[in-house]
Amino acid sequence: SRPVLELVDLVAGYRQRQGAWGRRREVRAVAGVNLTVHPGETLCLVGESGCGKSTVARTVVGLLRPLSGEVRFDGRDIATLSHAERKRLRREVQLVFQDPYASLNPTMTVYELLSEAWRIHPGLVAREDWDTEVASLLERVGLNPSHAQRYPHQFSGGQRQRISIARALSVKPRLIVCDEAVSALDVSIQAQILNLLAELQRELGVAYLFITHDLGVVRHFADRVAVMHLGTIVETGEVAELYERPAHPYTQALLSAAPSLDDWRSTATDEIVLRGDAPSPLAPPSGCRFHPRCWKAEDRCRVDEPQLVHRDTDHPVACHFPAEVSDVSATG
Ligand code: SF4
Ligand code: MG
């Protein structure tokens, strides 16, 4: 099927002036990213804070314009859309944030929050059907339909995130971008919200671009994972493949540090402690951007930037010395 979302050589970020009279320079928080999300699929974008994943989210939902490259929705560059098409895009791509309390207007009732978009997009739900539609949205996300006249502060954090999800669903989106959508919640509530999202995907066929810093969380939720480091994708693959055969040293470090939720860490690894903090996107390291922290770095890594190459059909890795490649070449 045709991808619902494609990022093509996406470069995004902001321009910053150096001093009062200085030249403006580009800070490339996203430095050339290619990603694809298919209808009904969950792609998890994983990386440390500051790696550029929120910039990806903001660019995908149109809050930020790319510096170069393309964001394609349904095969079309969103920069070329007409006004009417842009309006449809704003409906079909929804964003769910980490902090539902900040994104839900505290002066509006749940009923008002869920029906708000139906004024902007007439034809979505007829006025006489609003009551039943609000009730069914609340039921669908596991909330009591009789609580529609309550305000966000009358709900718990997990319930507020359910309201945010119901609000996103109210416009029948095809893609929901979740930016750290469960990170602020207790572990047991995280699992409930992820189960809800998975169930909604089965029922409605919605796709997720699920952004998180925590590889442990997405083990049972993702279809595919893309690991992001300092503005670039360093490894991507099917979830089982990536967890069982992580090939990039950065992915290995993230996995070794992820809390072990169950038995997935089949190959017992000691935690890999990375040296130093993530470098700034203001001054990315030469060559491989991971080399100052990589325990496998060699001279070549300091000068030669590795490209994301396909070792096999669908597990590309951006590293000069990925795990297991030497094993593969040794045996055949
Ligand atoms: Fe480490 Fe070199 Fe691979 Fe970069 S290219 S991850 S520095 S081994
Ligand atoms: Mg972020």
TrEMBL record:
<dbReference type="InterPro" id="IPR027417">
    <property type="entry name" value="P-loop_NTPase"/>
</dbReference>
<dbReference type="InterPro" id="IPR017871">
    <property type="entry name" value="ABC_transporter-like_CS"/>
</dbReference>
<dbReference type="InterPro" id="IPR003439">
    <property type="entry name" value="ABC_transporter-like_ATP-bd"/>
</dbReference>
<feature type="domain" description="ABC transporter">
    <location>
        <begin position="5"/>
        <end position="255"/>
    </location>
</feature>
<keyword id="KW-0813">Transport</keyword>
<keyword id="KW-0547">Nucleotide-binding</keyword>
<dbReference type="GO" id="GO:0015833">
    <property type="term" value="P:peptide transport"/>
</dbReference>
<protein>
    <submittedName>
        <fullName>Oligopeptide/dipeptide ABC transporter, ATP-binding protein</fullName>
    </submittedName>
</protein>
<dbReference type="GO" id="GO:0005524">
    <property type="term" value="F:ATP binding"/>
</dbReference>
<keyword id="KW-0067">ATP-binding</keyword>
<dbReference type="InterPro" id="IPR003593">
    <property type="entry name" value="AAA+_ATPase"/>
</dbReference>
<comment type="similarity">
    <text>Belongs to the ABC transporter superfamily.</text>
</comment>
<dbReference type="Pfam" id="PF00005">
    <property type="entry name" value="ABC_tran"/>
</dbReference>
<dbReference type="InterPro" id="IPR013563">
    <property type="entry name" value="Oligopep_ABC_C"/>
</dbReference>
<dbReference type="InterPro" id="IPR050319">
    <property type="entry name" value="ABC_transp_ATP-bind"/>
</dbReference>
<dbReference type="Pfam" id="PF08352">
    <property type="entry name" value="oligo_HPY"/>
</dbReference>
<dbReference type="GO" id="GO:0016887">
    <property type="term" value="F:ATP hydrolysis activity"/>
</dbReference>
<dbReference type="GO" id="GO:0055085">
    <property type="term" value="P:transmembrane transport"/>
</dbReference>
